[in-house]
Structures are given as structure tokens and as C-alpha cells.
Amino acid sequence: MPRITSGGPVEPAPAPSRAGVPRGGDGVFNTARAVGPVVGRGGELRRFRVQVEDGIELVAGDVALEIQGILAHPRSWGAHGRGRFQLVADEADFVIRIATPDTADRLCRESGFDTHGELNCETAEGVVVNLRRWTLGSPTFAGTPRAYRHLIINHEIGHEIGIRRHLGCPGPGRLAPVMMQQIKGLGGCRSNAFPYDEEGIYIAGPAVS
User: Fold this and answer.
1) pLDDT tens per residue across all 209 residues of the chain
2) Alpha-helical regions (H) of the chain
3) Domains in the chain: ranges and CATH
């Protein structure tokens, strides 16, 4: 288990460049001291903390507010009754960690996932986000790294709210489901970061293992 330390934002720092994404860190995490409002229209309330590994050019408080904004988006889970979410600084139902690739691999491996220095995962404690994906996005995603972060959070929170199986592409040219592992290929679909389309309809697809 990583050691956890408390710490809040000091001064904003830019996200690291491609060359500046460190491979590993010391496994010590800073916890965002921010507290946010409840977002979402219905369903179970889940409180979450955000932690960022030491030694990377991200500020825990800034990351926490960005994630809160993702969960509050009108096409995300909270807007359609699948759950309510609240950013907290202390006792939480799950934690979202931004970790260097080596640390992410170790945390994910403890839950039985082989993430190859590239992928994110959902563990018993919450979500582990690979710093490389948070910073650089994905070569299969037609959008900026910031837009890709919506996919990261929505996909892993989908697991957190009980969606265990991944989905496949529903058909050529259609939006890829958020529960599709889009980084592994789109199968003819268009990349997409949200569980719902602009009409509020859930974007489904065939179940895959």
C-alpha cells in the first residue's frame, strides 16, 4: 500500500510535457484538501477524494476541481440519475489517484490487472489513473488530452458504480460507448468521452469480456 500524506495546492503548475512524464515515483500521495458540492440528480451518494503522487507537476487541488467538473458535466453519469458525487478531503467512499506509470502498474497489479505502464484501472479502493494517459491522452482519441480525461473518469467511474463488463463498438461510424476500452482500438466507431449522447440517450454496445 502507498503511504498517504495530506497536502493542498500551493501554486498551479503546468502539466508535464511528453518528455517530462516521469516513469516512476516514490508512491507517496498528496490529498487535495478541496471540498465540493454534491453533483448529480439522483442515485446513491458517493464521496471521493483525489490524490496525486509526489514529484509530478500536477497540483492535487487543481486536479480535484477538474474531476469534479467532469462528474458534473451534463453528459456524465451524475446528470442522468446513475449516482451523486461529492469531492471531500477526508472520509470517502473511494479515492481517485493520479500515479506515475510504475506506481499505477503496482497498484493495479495488486488488484489483478496488468496495465503495462499505459492503462488505468479500478481497484477495491477506487480509481488509479496513469499519469501518461492523464497528460498525453490517447492516440486513438480524436481530441485533446483535457477532453480525453472525461473518458478516463467516466470509464472508471462506470466501473465504480457497478458496470463491470466492457462494451464493444455498436456499429461503424457510431459513437463508441464510454465503457469501451477505446485505447485498444475503436472498431470503426468514433471516439467518445461521455456515457450519454447530446439527447441524453445512453450510448450502449455489445458486451465483451
Assistant:
1) 333 322 322 223 333 444 578 999 999 999 999 999 999 988 999 999 999 999 898 999 999 999 999 999 999 999 988 999 999 999 999 999 999 999 999 999 999 999 999 999 999 999 999 999 999 999 999 999 999 999 999 999 999 999 999 999 999 999 999 999 999 999 999 999 999 999 999 999 999 96
2) 60-71, 101-109, 131-136, 145-160
3) 4-208 (3.40.390)
